[in-house]
Amino acid sequence: MSDNRTHRQMSRRKFMEMMGVSAGGVAGLSMLPPAIQQALAIPPNNATGTIRDVEHVVIMMQENRSLNHYFGTYNGVRGFTDPRPVVSPATGKDVFRQPITDSLSNKDGKRCGVPLGTSEVLPYPIDYDKTGEGLRGTDHGVNSGQSCWNHGRYDNWIAAKGDVLTMSYLRHKDVSYHRYLANAFTVCDHYFVSCHGDTIPNRQFLVSGAAANPALKNPKVIWPSWDKTPAVRVVSDWTTYPERIEKFNAEQTNPGRKITWRTYQGGTGKPGEPTDCYEENNLAYFAAYNDQPVKGCYWVDGVCYKDGKVYTGSLDNLPTLVRNGVTNRSIAQMREDVLNNQLPNISWVVAPYKNCEHPSATVTDGAYYINEVLSALVANPEVWSKTIFLLNYDENDGLFDHVVPPMPVDEKGPGKMSPSLLNGLDRELYNHENEWVGQYIGFGPRVPMLVVSPWSKGGWVCSEVFDHTSTLRFLEARFGLESDKTGVENPLYESNITPWRRAIAGDLTSAFDFAKNDAAFVAYPKGGPFVNKSGKFPPNVPLTNAMPKVENPVTAFGTDNTSNPDFSRRSRPLPYEFHINGHLDAAKKQLVVDFVNAGKAGSCFYAYDYVLKDQKPRRYSVIKGEPLQDAWDVTDKGYHLAIHGPNGYLRQFKGALTAELEVDPQVEILYQANGDVTLKLVNAGTKDQTLKITVLYDKIGSADRTPSTKMRPLKLLTCVPQFEEIKTRSGWYDITVELVNESGKSDGVYLRRFAGRVETGAASVTDPFLTFNNVETA
Predict the structure, then answer these.
(1) In this structure, are 189 and 292 located in the same domain?
(2) Number of folded domains that form the chain
(3) What's the angle, vertex CA 669, arms to CA 406 and CA 664, rounded to 5?
(4) Least C-beta-crowded within 10 Å: which of 59, 216, 478, 573?
(5) Spatial distance between the Cα atoms of 135 and 129, rounded to a whole number of angstroms
(6) How far is CA 292 from CA 329, 490, 561, 572, in A?
C-alpha cells in the first residue's frame, strides 16, 4: 500500500493539540488539519464529467446548531450583515432586534445579564475562553419553534425560548474546524430543517422523507419512544429509504447494479472512547427494524433488547435491513472499508453524544469526530476521488436564525399555492392536540450544511433552498440512474416527500460542479496559535450589544485565497427566475400582485403588510407554469407591501389610491441574458411624470460610496412602454423607483423597489453588500 493508503489515524490528544485546546477544553484551530489538506489535494474522478462519477455518498447529521450560531460572521454567508432582513410591520425594526420584556425571569441566569427595562436584544458573541464550551441547551420543542416563527413574523425568539442565550453566536476561533471546512469546500446558507421540532421528526425526514405516515388520512407527526419497556414503545410504520434500496436490489438480476448501504455508529473504535449513538439512529424507530432477530426484539444504540433486557440469543442471521441499519460499525471499521475499497455507495454516520455537538456536548469534540470520519474517507485517494461527504445538523436547538423558513398554506390562506402543490398537504400538518394543532410543521430554521467533496472545493457558497429531504433527493438523482425506470416509477424515488416539499427544496446538485477537472486551491499556512484559558463565567450579553460585522478572512485563516477582493465569495448558479409585479386596480381600489415563476425550482415568498400591521404575513408557493395572483384592498392610508424570497430577493410596493389615479406609473423589471436588468416604465396616467431611479449597488463602486440616482422623465405616451437599462454588480441589483416633483423631491408616497440576483446559468458571487463596509479590520 502507498503512504496515502496507510494514512494514520490522528489521536484525540494530537487533534486537541492541533486545535489549540487548553486545559479548560477551549479550542482555536492553529493549523489546517491533515485530513482537510489531503481531501483538497486529491483530484476528483472525472470519468464522465457528470454526477455518475460519484460512487459514494456519506451523510453525517450532527445536533442542534443554527446557521447564524456557527456562520453568522463568516464572509459570503447571508448572516448578520444581511442587507435585506425582514422588518416587523408592528415595530418597524428588523428581526435581528428581538424584543425582551421584564417578565422574563433571571432564574438559572436566563436573562444572561440583560438589565430590567431593556426592550431588545441583538445577536451577541459567546467567548469559550471565558465561559467554557459546555453551555446549556435552549428549548427546541414544537411549541417554542412555532411560537418563534409566529406565522412568519419571526419576532418572538426570546419569549418563546425563555432564554436570552438563544441570541448567542460563536466567532471563528470557537468554531474554527467547521469554518476551515467551509473555506476549503462549500457551505449552503439556505439549508433549513424539515420541521419546527426537535431531533426525532427531523431525523425521520432524513431517513424516510416524512415525519408522519403518508398512507393515513390526517396523519400525525410521530415522536417514537426508545423506552425499553415494550408496552410503552412507539414505532413508526412507514417506509424508510434503505427499504427502497433493498426493494430495488431485489429486482436486479445483475449484481453489479445493486446499491450498497450501511450505517456507521458505535464511536471511533478507539479504546476508551464512547460507543453510544445518543439514541439518534432513527432507523431503529421504524417497524421494519424491530422484531429481529426474533419477535419482540428491538435495537437501542446498536444493542438488541427483548422484554427490557439485553437479548442473549444468536445475532448471526440478521436480515440486511437490521444488520446494515442498526448494528454497530465504528469509524475505525469505516476506515478499513475505505482501504479495502468496500465503502458502501450510501452511508449514514451517527456520532456518540459526546461528539454530536448537542449543547452541552462541545464543538471541539464534534470537530474531532468529523475529522475522524474525513480522515477515514481520505485514507484511500481512489475512494475519496469518488466520494461526497455531507455534514448537516438535525435542528437549531433554540438558537436564533433570521431568515424566515418556507411554509405551505392551503386554500384558507393567508396566501396561495400553485394548485399542483396542494396534493398531500395533510402530511405536512401538525395534528397533535395543542395550540398549534392544524398548523403546518415546516420548514424550520436554517442550520449548517457543509458539502465536502472533490467536486465542491474552493470556499463556495450555495444559496438554493434545501431541507433534510434534499439528501434523499440527491440519492435519487445519483443512484436512480441505475434504474431502467424514471420519475415516480423509479423504485428509488422517495414518494414520502410531498409535492410541496419536493418543489421548494432542491436536490443538492447545484452545490457541485461535476464537469470541471479540479478546483484550484492554495495550501493554507500554519496560523498563529491561540492562547486559551478555561472559563466559568456565565454567557452574558456584553454591555455594548451591537450588530456584529463579518470576521476578516485574512485574520481568521492566515490567508485569503478563496474570497474575492471585496470579501464576497464565489457562489453557485441557482435555478431561480421570479417575476413578481404589482399594479393598481383603481376601479376595485386594490393593489394586484402577480407571482410568476419562470425558473426550474419552486419557491416560497412571504408578503408583509405595513399598513394593516396586525395582519399575518401571506405566504405564496409558486412553481413554473402555475402563476398566482392576489390582491390587497387599498385603505385611506394607502398600501405598502414587502415580499421576501430566497437569496435576498425583495419586492416592495408602496403608494396611495388618490395619488396614483392621475399619474399611475407602472414599473416592471426585465432580466437580460448577461445579468443586467431593464426597467420597463409605463405612464398609464393623465399627465407627464418624473421618476427618480436609485441604483444601490453602484454605491460599492463609486468613489464617494453613494448610490447613483437618475431623474427619468416619463412622458404621457398612451401606455407605450419606455425602457431604462441598468448595469448590475455580478447580477446583483437593488433599485428603487420614486415619483418626484418639479424640484426633484420625492412625494414620499409612491415607491417600487426591486432587489435580488439575476441568474444566468453561470457561477456568480455572493451578495456584495454582505461584506461592503461590514468586515472587521485585519
Answers:
(1) yes
(2) 2
(3) 105
(4) 216
(5) 12
(6) 18, 29, 53, 45
- 589-594-598 Cα angle (round to 5): 170
104 and 166 fall within a common domain:
yes
Q: Which domain range does residue 84 map to?
A: 48-407+442-572
**Cβ neighbours of residue 256 under 8 Å, at least 6 residues apart?**
none
Question: Which residue, chain included where needed, has cell 402563476?
Answer: 627
SS3 category, 684:
coil
Structure confidence by residue, pLDDT tens digits, 538-577? 999 999 999 999 999 999 998 888 999 999 999 999 999 9
3-state helix, strand, coil in the chain (%, to 5): 25, 25, 50
Report the candidate in 71, 81, 80 with the shortest Cα–Cα distance to residue 773. 81
The Cα–Cα gap between 409 and 616 comes to 12
Q: What CATH number is attached to the domain comprising 530?
A: 3.40.720.10
Q: Characterise 144 by phi-psi region: left (phi > 0), alpha (psi -120 to 50), beta (else).
A: alpha
Q: Do 191 and 462 form a contact (C-beta atoms < 8 A)?
A: no
Phi, psi dihedrals of residue 620, rounded to the nearest 5°: -135, 125
Strand order from edge to edge, sheet including 722-726 = 665-671, 677-683, 722-726
The CA-to-CA distance between both ends of the chain, in Å, stands at 44
Cβ contacts of 107 within 8 Å, gap of 6 or more: none
636 and 509 within one domain: no
| Residue that has been written with the C-alpha cell 410543521 in this structure | 441
Question: Quick check: is 423 in a domain?
Answer: no
What is the average pLDDT score of the chain? 91
Segment 591-605 shows an average pLDDT of: 98
- Residues 6+ away with beta carbon under 8 Å from 311: 293, 294, 297, 304, 305
Q: To which residue does cell 454497530 refer?
A: 328
| Sheet (strand 309-310) strand order | 297-300, 303-306, 309-310
Domain-embedded: residue 400: yes
Compute how many other C-beta atoms are within 10 angstroms of the C-beta atom of residue 159: 18
Question: Has residue 434 been placed in a domain?
Answer: no
Could you tell me the three cell numbers for 404? 424566515
The residue among 229 and 388 whose pLDDT is bigger is 388
The string of pLDDT tens digits covering residues 652-679 is 999 988 755 566 789 999 999 999 999 9
Write phi, then psi, for 554 (nearest 5 degrees): -65, -45
Going by pLDDT thresholds of 50, 70 and 90, the confidence category of residue 254 is confident
